[in-house]
């Protein structure tokens, strides 16, 4: 019996051991499978980071190249800078491909191998942009050092600073006049552009004094100092140009607002006629309510109130007109819909161009890949809308509104 009992005990112990081993194998297998399942998500996250980092690097490098090639043209003329300009154009084309690939990565997060290949191409294109623009930038930097003597460059620099200071006075008056009727928020970067330009000119003037003949600084350092001052002068001139560009956009907004108000009065009369002939009470009430909202929007802000933003007024009036359009949808003819779309497009275009400029300004000091991608999409939609307005005004209106949404998203992402 003892032998039998020992045999049974051995069987039980062996069975337990086998079960433990099987259980351990099962647990290890489960862990391995789980890790394999989570690996694609980790790879996808790494792919996204690589692609986003390369996108930001390429976008920043092109922005530097665009400014530098304008500087080169201003110094040496378009013929001398033609190859550099071609390189910038090629870089822009590469950037468009980078943004396209980045959108595919965002749209297909589970495409592991395809996304790794896309990220690799994004990095390759970013490297090519950096290399090509870097070579041209270096060549022109060397040319600036050899282009003339320090004395000649200093003379031109000082004359340029003096001319910019005279321009600063006129631009400051223009900015102050704009602030009488617009808030600083409406002017955006142009609100303090004269002050920023003045600081850049002060710094340029200081560097020019540091590079004056007779000092004991080594020649290479003097040439570098002059080049830094020239770049500050160029930046100050660009900053001063923001005021005129903003004034032009505001004029466009006011003109668009005037046209849209004229269109609103026509739409209002049409809507009231449609309300009187409405087939049922609900339809008539909906049209009447939409007209009432349009009347409130057309009346504008109260007299004596704070400065208003014409772009906000355009947005409010466009929304009110859209509400009337919806209420009148069943009674409008195709010709009327097309005419309304063309008129609404002009107002939306002005808004969008201003919003794109605001988003681009917000991205000057950085910004994520997502913000840059949204801005790129806004610019693509805006160009598409301009191409469609003559033949497909309704599609053009839809496209420009998408562009406005993308541009607003880009500014929000860039700031926050």
Radius of gyration: 32 Å
Which regions are unreliable across 5 or more consecutive residues at pLDDT < 50? 1-5, 18-22, 24-43
The proportion of residues forming helix, as a percent range, comes to over 70%
Order of helices and strands: HHHHHHHHHHHH
Task: Give a count of the beta strands, DSSP E runs of length 2 or more.
Answer: 0
Query: Strand content of the residues, in percent?
Result: under 5%
Largest sheet: none
Q: Give the structural class.
A: mainly alpha
Per DSSP, the total helix count is: 12
Distance between the termini: 82 Å
Number of domains: 3
Give the CA-based shape. globular
Q: Based on the structure, what is the oligomeric state of the protein chains?
A: single chain
Mean pLDDT: 81
Written account of the structure:
With 416 residues, this protein is mainly α. Helix content is 86%, strand content 0%. α2 packs antiparallel against α3 (112-147) and α7 (219-276) packs antiparallel against α8 (281-299). The radius of gyration is 32 Å and the shape is globular.
Topology record:
Elements: H1 2-76, H2 82-107, H3 112-147, H4 150-181, H5 184-187, H6 193-210, H7 219-276, H8 281-299, H9 310-327, H10 334-362, H11 369-388, H12 393-415
Short note summarizing the structure:
The chain has 416 residues and is an all-alpha fold. Helix content is 86%, strand content 0%.
What key attributes describe this structure?
disordered N terminus, mainly alpha, 12 helices, globular, 416 residues
